[in-house]
Every structure is written in structure tokens, then in C-alpha cells.
């Protein structure tokens, strides 16, 4: 039942985006997704996941975005939800590698902000001439 609710939630969510951010479909998709999550992992685990002290910022943005979508401001609400979603799953990972499987700074130039060096396709530090 929970997997079905999550699946329908994602379907309505994506369908709402395809129909130019239809706020009713987006809100319905969000509510189905959260209800399915409760059915899959239980109410207590869902509550403890969202309301841990380090995750309160992400939770507030996610649920604030849900409320903004329900108030029929879908684009702003989706932006708030996206930021909250990223903040929720970024918490405790330590780096972008844990979330995305790649580092967004490690692109064509290969800038590594941790070491402050260039080691990408260029193969050398551009400041070295």
C-alpha cells in the first residue's frame, strides 16, 4: 500500500509539473508521497527523520514549500521544497559525493575546493602559466 501511494504521489507530482505547475496536482502528489512514506517506514520513523535537530532547516523549507503550493503559489513552493529536500538529504553526508555520486565542482576544469587545486582535464594549475 505504501509503495503504491508513493508511486501515485510521484506520478501526480510529475504530472503537475508537466501541466505547467498545476498546484492541485502538485499538492495531491506531495500528500500522497508523504502518506506513502508513513505507510512504508512507519509514523515514528518518519517523524524522527523529519524532526531531528540537524534536519530542522530542511524540514521547515520542505513543509513550508508544501504549504506555499497549497496556497496556490506552485513555482515558489516547488523551489522551497527542492531546497528543503536537498537540505534534508545533505545533512550528515559530509560532501556532495554522498548525495550525487559525483562532485559538481569536479567538472571540466577540475577545481577541487577542498584542496584549492586544479586537476581536471586541463591537467595543470591555470595560475602556473
How does the SSE layout of this entry go?
Elements: H1 2-18, H2 23-41, H3 43-50, H4 56-70, H5 74-90, H6 96-100, E1 111-112, E2 117-118
Antiparallel strand pairs: 1-2
Helix pairs in contact: 1-2, 2-3, 4-5
Distance between the termini: 62 Å
How many beta-strand elements? 2
Q: Quickly count the helices.
A: 6
Tell me the strand order in the biggest sheet. Answer: 1-2
Strand content: under 5%
The chain-level structural class is mainly alpha
User: Residue-averaged pLDDT, rounded?
Assistant: 80
Unreliable segments (pLDDT under 50, ≥5 consecutive)?
A: 96-100
What does this protein look like?
By secondary structure, the protein is mostly helical. It has a domain at 1-44 and 58-92. It has six helices and two strands; from the N terminus they run H-H-H-H-H-H-E-E. A two-stranded antiparallel ribbon has the order 1-2. Helix 1 (2-18) packs antiparallel against helix 2 (23-41), helix 2 crosses helix 3 (43-50) and helix 4 (56-70) runs antiparallel to helix 5. The termini are far apart. Keywords: Golgi apparatus, Membrane, Transmembrane, Transmembrane helix. May be involved in fusion of ER-derived transport vesicles with the Golgi complex. This is GOT1A protein. It is found in: Golgi apparatus membrane. The chain crosses the membrane at residues 12-40, 61-86.
Amino acid at each position: 500500500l505504501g509503495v503504491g501511494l508513493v508511486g501515485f504521489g510521484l506520478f501526480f507530482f510529475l504530472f503537475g509539473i508537466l501541466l505547467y505547475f498545476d498546484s492541485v496536482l502538485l499538492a495531491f502528489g506531495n500528500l500522497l508521497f508523504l502518506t506513502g512514506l508513513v505507510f512504508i517506514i512507519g509514523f515514528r520513523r518518519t517523524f524522527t527523520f523529519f524532526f531531528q535537530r540537524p534536519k530542522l532547516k530542511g524540514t521547515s523549507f520542505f513543509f513550508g514549500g508544501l504549504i506555499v503550493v497549497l496556497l496556490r503559489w506552485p513555482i515558489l513552493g516547488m523551489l522551497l521544497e527542492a531546497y528543503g529536500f536537498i537540505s534534508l538529504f545533505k545533512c550528515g553526508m559530509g560532501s556532495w559525493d554522498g548525495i550525487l555520486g559525483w562532485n559538481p565542482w569536479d567538472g571540466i576544469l577540475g577545481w577541487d575546493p577542498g584542496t584549492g587545486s586544479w586537476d581536471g582535464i586541463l591537467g595543470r594549475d591555470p595560475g602556473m602559466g
